[in-house]
Amino acid sequence: MSGDDMELDCSAVLTDVWLMLDGECDDATRARLQHHMDHCSPCIEAYGLEEKLKRLLSTKCGGDRAPDSLRERLTLEIRRSVTITETRIETGEA
Predict the structure, then answer these.
(1) Which residues does 33 contact at the CB level (< 8 Å), separation at least 6?
(2) Separation between Cα atoms, residue 44 and residue 41, nearest integer Å
(3) How do residues 9-30 score in pLDDT, each as one tens digit?
(4) pLDDT tens per residue across span 35-60
(5) What residue stretches are annotated with the Putative zinc-finger domain (predicted)?
(6) Which of 41, 35, 26 has the alpha carbon at shortest distance from 6?
(7) Domain extents for the chain?
(8) Which pTM was predicted?
(9) Termini Cα distance of the chain
């Protein structure tokens, strides 16, 4: 991996902090984010604040579960938006 591959803009790092905190990024992305934060004190500070916020939310809301009706509506909306997005992509390329 070249040095250019490891360079990220702070805004890109801060956008992906929650993906990293939630364990939703791949190893390569995690390495790039970590490399940036190892050399950028404002980003590591922001990461620390987000980590504390996530821990606080988990502590205060960790046992709460959304009602089944809300979960079903959200699932339906997500599926609908994915279908619309896929349709737009196909329409735009045709």
Answers:
(1) 8, 13, 16, 17, 20, 25
(2) 5
(3) 888 888 888 888 888 889 998 9
(4) 999 999 999 998 898 899 888 887 87
(5) 10-43
(6) 35
(7) 3-82
(8) 0.52
(9) 37
